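Record 1 of the preview.
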Amino acid sequence: MGVSKPSAFTKWIKSNLLLLFTFIGVILGAVLGLGLRPVNLSEKSILLLSYPGELFMRLLQLMILPLIIASLITGAASLNAKLNGKMALRTIVYFLSTSLISSLVGLVLVLAIHPGNSETKELLGAGSTKQRNLDLVDNFLDLGRNLIPSNVFQASMETAITKYTVEMSGNSTIITGKTMDYRSGTNTLGIIFFCLTFGTVLGSLGPSGKPLINLFSIIDQVIMKMVYMVMWVSPIGIASVIAAKILGVSDLALVMSQLGLFMVTVCSGIFFYQFVCLQLIYFLIVRKNPYKFWWGLFQSWMTAFATASTAAALPISFRCMQENNKVDPRISKFVLPIGATINMDGTAMFVTTASIFIAQMNDIQLDVGAYATVVLTSTAASIAAASVPSAALVLMLLVLTAIDAPYQDVSLLWAIDWFVDRCRTTNNMLGDCYGAAVVEKLSRSELEMMDKMANEVEQESKNPKYEDKDNEDVEEQSVTTDL
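->
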């Protein structure tokens, strides 16, 4: 009797085993968190439950910096300077366009559903957010300072930020001075700029730069193998993170009843953007099945949801893009790190929706000009988010100030941000990945030209150099005659 062949289902299970385990981890974390809520665990017990998730997050964060450095240098070195410039322009235009589309989707939904009203404000009470002195111009100036760091080693540990000196005058705060300071945290934008420049120049050196390119390529391969090992513990880490976050919410039912409609509005916008807007953009430009592409990113999608960090999911995004979706690694290594830093589609949508929600709660009537201000400021603030700590809720202060809405009410959204933040992070991550696929399609002719030139050079190097050999023979004969 012959050995029976494995069924198609068995083959699918075998090839998607890690994805299946990760999905089980997400479900297990949600069930565990909801199931343990009636037990009223102590803070120490919740801390112990969250500990595996904390270690998992630290493992992912450990990989980010070496992975960005190695992948960007090898990616930039494998392309010429002209193509790097074209790719950078296409990437930035794509990011700006999609962030603006995301903001517009949020605007349409928050106006159509109208989740905010004065009754909601009465239930939630007054906000308690202390005023933070933020300025959009200062944020863009900080963005420039972080883009070009004065010390690349300092950039791996600290980020430039504008600090304000203030004085209280009655109930208002007066800015008396500004200083440029640093806060703890990797300046990813500065590292990206340095690595792109370093890789581009290294690639232009030709054969003399090849050994160093090979070194960074080997480092890149080693980090990716380490990432693959970390991915096998991701189900445990993801389950731990999600369960701990659910248990950390003080009154889940009350939060859902008071802000449930707002959460529905935000999540509707996020998933409409993911499953309609991004898919349509991908189909119109790339001309392939967009949902198959999304399925190839599901592992990274779940990691982004669990960790609430595009950067933490970056190592897994690289692997999914290369192995599942077959995107040219030269493109993904270029686009994804930049996107993880400045492309915040989900953040732009959330800031737009939440700002108008707060205006609705306070019965503030906004005109067309105010709506345009919200959309444009949200888009600009999401790009400048790299230099602003505390993410979307902090950026809202800029928008609320622009439309003269009460900034104190930002604190009312902290209770649900643990969940909404995870949803909008998946938007950010998918926007980066779809952007890489679009840039690859738009750069296809240049990539094929480079591959053709590389093949020609390789063929020439393999052919015997008859002219050099003949010259050497002539020189040898001349030396013999002289002797």
